[in-house]
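Q: I'm writing up a methods section and want to include an example of the input and output format. Could you take the sequence below and give the corresponding predicted structure tokens, formatted cleanly so I can copy it straight into the document?
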Amino acid sequence: MTVEWAMSELLRKSDVLTKATEELDRVIGHERLVKEEDITNLPYMQAIVKETMRLHPVTPLLAPRLSREDASVDGYDIPTGTRVFVNVWAIGRDPAVLGDAPDEFRPERFAGSSVDVKGQDFELLPFGSGRRMCPGIGLGLKMVQVILANLVHGFAWRLPDGMAKEELSMEEKFGLSMPRLIPLQAVAEPRLPAHLYARPP
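A: Here is the clean output for your methods example:
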């Protein structure tokens, strides 16, 4: 779901797609595919993934929490026994947290930033925080980063003939998860040597 949202945003922002492709060409070259260990050398690709997770969290509401003791958070009193739902979708679009144009896809927000997805930065909580944090964070984050990087590096992407980027629906389907309402359709053309696409014997 996150990869589909990321590709949707990249198809709408050709300058971001170009910048990501240039980074991949510079760091990886044209003779191999992206590996997991390459991700640390791809800060712009990491920023794209963070921005996608901010704008399109897989689950809009984190798992419910139960307050074990009276607490006060940002001026709100939370009595013992209160069931708390954290709306990461709303937090990720709050201008008080993100500043200018929170609904706009801008990976530069996270380029060179120390903000990460490990639950310590309130503006980016796609996996939750604390003891109830998603146990799949390690695998989930790496899979999204490597898959997206290989899709961008391995193919030249465009929308189907006759479709303008303004026509690409970005409607969400609200529920426990938040997929695209209309599945993404795009055209991919290989941009690396043919032997890299062949299945090994």
